[in-house]
Here is the input.
Amino acid sequence: MFSKFELKLAYGLAIWLLLVGVICYAAFPPETPDQPIRLLYTPAAGKVLFDHQTHQSPTGYGISCGDCHHTLAEDEYDQAQSCVECHDPNEGDEEVPKRGDAFHKQCAGCHEAFGAGPVEKDCSACHVM
Ligand code: HEC
Ligand code: HEC
Ligand code: HEC
Ligand code: HEC
Here is the structure.
């Protein structure tokens, strides 16, 4: 049998641990937003594998969300959308390019600027298979 004191101690400890748990959960919320790891596109020109995680991760290329999700302010990164929400697959103009052109411009444009990664003329470096 447990003594009254032991029971009190056990309850006290249980409540204390529960509190610690709640406080820790509130202070360190689990890493949201779920972002894609890798994205596969299958245009007729050949499949493109985009390594989202490596591009964005601080241990990868460390590029800021807003450099690609270019309409978002820093406190809006968790609202990142697909480009097609604004870049129509079939229609575009100089200012708001259509989806395919938007990809080419952003992907290859940044590689050009960085002096790293496939540039526009390196079709087969992105379009493998
Ligand atoms: C190098 C460019 C780049 C960087 C950096 C980047 N993303 Fe993305 N992200 C993309 C592209 C491209 C897509 C796919 C868009 C499409 O297919 O229309 C995407 C898709 C997403 C999606 C899925 C959207 C949907 O509804 O389909 C989320 C969520 C997302 N990114 C969040 C983030 C967050 C958060 C960060 C920063 C931690 C980030 N991204 C950094 C380029 C990038
Ligand atoms: C919420 C709407 C929206 C989303 C989502 C969006 N764009 Fe745009 N994009 C625009 C608008 C509006 C413009 C024209 C004005 C400007 O440059 O900001 C534009 C312009 C561009 C341009 C031309 C800019 C230049 O310098 O010539 C590129 C390239 C581009 N977007 C790529 C992308 C890519 C890639 C994605 C997805 C990762 C994306 N956009 C997501 C609205 C959007
Ligand atoms: C804002 C800058 C930026 C944008 C936008 C960007 N990249 Fe990159 N990308 C890089 C950098 C930096 C590297 C690293 C090159 C190195 O270190 O060798 C890279 C490397 C790559 C590589 C070669 C290594 C690998 O990961 O396989 C591919 C392929 C690539 N990017 C595809 C894409 C595609 C597809 C898109 C558009 C959906 C894109 N990138 C958009 C900056 C960017
Ligand atoms: C930096 C990577 C990259 C390079 C380099 C690249 N592409 Fe692409 N390409 C893409 C991505 C990403 C898409 C979007 C795929 C999708 O929307 O399904 C795409 C889409 C396309 C499409 C479909 C366009 C549309 O409007 O739907 C064609 C055609 C194409 N590329 C041809 C080429 C040719 C030709 C070259 C060389 C001159 C080239 N690409 C170089 C990444 C690249």
